[in-house]
Structure formats: structure tokens, C-alpha cells
Design a protein that fits this description.
Blueprint (H helix, E strand, L loop, with lengths): L29 H11 L4 E4 L6 H9 L3 E4 L3 H15 L3 E5 L3 H5 L1 H10 L3 E7 L15 H5 L5 E4 L5 H14 L5 E7 H4 L9 H7 L14 H12 L4 E5 L1 H5 L3 H11 L3 E3 L19 H7 L2 E4 L1
Parallel strand pairs: 1-2, 1-3, 3-4, 4-6, 5-6, 7-8, 7-9
Helix pairs in contact: 1-2, 1-7, 3-5
């Protein structure tokens, strides 16, 4: 399929024949329901490869202010979307077509989950009535991606779209961030809200479930055990990683280090929790700090 230039409006995919290619989005259909849900959740960026049945979804996203960045390959789009999610703290969307497009997106899902970066992959899939009949690019996409994501859900009805998207968003940012997957069959994407000119009112009634970002807490017994080890340590060391950086825990890390005079070593993704010029920062003497420590507490 021919792709638009990065940041340019999405154009219909060439080389396919389907009624979805002539569908006009943004008139109270599944495309609009999906992008309105993403908009309400604060999603700002969408990366992907357009084609049947998701080209109108990219256009609808741009219409509500979500920036769509067209890519030439789903794997690269997934890496870009995951990086955007990590840098902004809000999941970006990886948009793919059905079948091979969704399969190519698995690399991005695996990458995001392994690195604890929030990402939502949204894929179109074949019409529900055509499953098992050799439909165009038919694939059980939910099953294919499940081992690589924290959540995978399919919208079986128009009204399911906001709920499934909200669940994917919540999963991607909760605890250890990672990837989540949303599957929307093409017939659901093209379903229009009832009411004709009242479609906007009907869209407003599709309530978006509240999304909470629960802050994980350490096991009390584990905290007590770590404290006991530190009390008896002669050369303790704090190793600060990505989780502490994502949680913006730099203040409490520095308070702990300063109060007890504990050197702090930052991992590659944990650096910055303690400034490099801090007297207790051990980044410049990593091997020595690890070799000499008798107790290391990883945060």
C-alpha cells in the first residue's frame, strides 16, 4: 500500500477492493466513537500504516486534533509510538490494518511491554459475519497478540468501543506500564449511530468509563526486610532504576540517601533521580560501588 508522508492527511489505501474504502468517516460511526474515546483519554499521537479498514480512522483522528504520523512499516511505527508514550507519559496509538498489519505490529507490542513503555495498538479486523470463511486478511488477532500485552480486547458492538479503549488505556499505564491491544471488526467501525442528525447526541451518551492510574505500593514485609538489611550494612548501596524515574521518586530517593549517607547508583534509565554532581552519586564509580557494597537495595 502507498503511504502518505509523515504528518500528512491519510489517503485511502490503493490495491484493495472493499466497501470500506469509500466509507466517509466522522458522521457518528465507529471511527468517530473510537477517536472521541482516545481524545477524551488525552491521547495526542497516533503512528501507523493506513489501509483497509482503518484509513478513515486515521482521518477521523486528525479531525479531532490527534496527530497522525504515517509510517512505512508497522514495526517502526510501534517503536515510535512506544517512545512517544514513554516520553510524554500518555500512551500513543499504533494503528494497523488487519491480518499481516496486526502481526507486524507485535514487535512494537513486545518492545513496549519489555521496556515498560505505555502503548495502545488499535487494529481493524475482518467483518464478524465473515470469520471462518476466508475473509480478507482474516486472523485471530486477539489470540496472536495476547502473550505480548497486558490487555487485549475486541469491541463486538459499537457501544463496546469506549469501554474496550478505556480498559486498554488503563492497563497500559497501571503498575508497570506496557502495551495493550484493541481489536475492532470492520463492520463495527462502519456502523453508524442511530438517529441520523442526532448522531452527535447519541455519541455523547456513550459514556467513557473512568480511568484510574493506581500507584503501586511495596509489600510492607518487603520494606521491613530491606530496612533490616540496611541497618546491618557496613557499605550499603541504593540502585535506582526506570521504575523510580517513571514514578518521579527523585525527592524521596534523595531524602533517604542524604539521611543515611547511602551512595546511589542509577541504571541507564534511572539516571537523574540523583544529580551526577551529588556527593553520593556513584555513577562515575559503578564497578567499584557494586564490588564494594555488602547490601544493595534496588528501587
Amino acid at each position: 500500500d502507498k503511504q502518505a508522508a509523515p504528518g500528512a492527511p491519510a489517503s485511502p489505501s490503493q490495491g484493495h477492493t472493499s466497501t470500506s474504502s469509500s466509507h466517509t468517516a466522522g458522521l457518528g460511526d465507529g471511527y468517530e466513537v473510537a477517536v472521541r474515546a482516545l481524545q477524551q483519554l488525552g491521547v495526542k499521537y497516533m503512528f501507523g500504516v493506513v489501509g483497509i479498514p482503518v484509513t478513515p480512522l486515521a482521518s477521523s483522528a486528525q479531525a479531532v486534533g490527534i496527530r497522525f504520523i504515517a509510517m512505512r512499516n508497522e514495526q517502526a511505527a510501534g517503536y515510535a509510538a512506544a517512545a512517544a508514550g514513554y516520553l510524554t507519559g500518555t500512551p500513543a496509538v499504533l494503528l494497523t490494518v488487519s491480518g499481516p498489519g496486526a502481526i507486524h505490529g507485535i514487535a512494537g507490542l513486545s518492545h513496549a511491554t519489555a521496556n515498560c513503555w505505555p502503548l495502545i495498538m488499535l487494529s481493524g479486523s475482518c467483518e464478524q459475519g465473515e470469520v471462518g470463511k476466508g475473509a480478507f486478511q482474516e486472523e485471530d488477532q486477539v489470540a496472536a497478540v495476547s502473550r505480548h500485552v497486558k490487555y487485549a480486547g475486541r469491541a463486538d458492538r459499537l457501544a463496546d468501543i469506549p469501554t474496550v479503549i478505556a480498559a486498554a488505556y488503563a492497563a497500559s499505564v497501571a503498575g508497570r506500564p506496557g502495551a495493550a491491544y484493541v481489536d475492532i471488526p470492520s463492520n463495527i467501525l462502519m456502523t453508524r449511530l442511530p438517529g441520523g442528525s442526532g448522531a452527535q447526541e447519541a455519541l455523547a451518551k456513550l459514556a467513557l468509563p473512568p480511568v484510574q492510574r493506581p500507584r503501586p505500593s511495596a509489600c510492607e514485609q518487603a520494606v521491613q526486610a530491606a530496612a533490616q538489611l540496611l541497618r546491618g550494612a557496613a557499605r550499603p548501596l541504593l540502585v535506582v532504576g526506570k521504575g523510580a524515574a517513571q514514578a518521579r521518586a527523585e525527592e524521596v530517593v534523595q531524602v533517604l540517601a542524604n539521611r543515611y549517607g547511602i551512595p546511589v547508583l542509577g541504571t541507564a534509565m534511572g539516571r537523574g533521580c540523583v544529580p551526577d554532581d551529588h556527593p553520593l552519586c556513584a555513577n562515575a564509580a559503578r564497578s567499584l560501588a557494586l564490588g564494594e557494597a555488602d547490601v544493595a537495595v534496588v528501587v
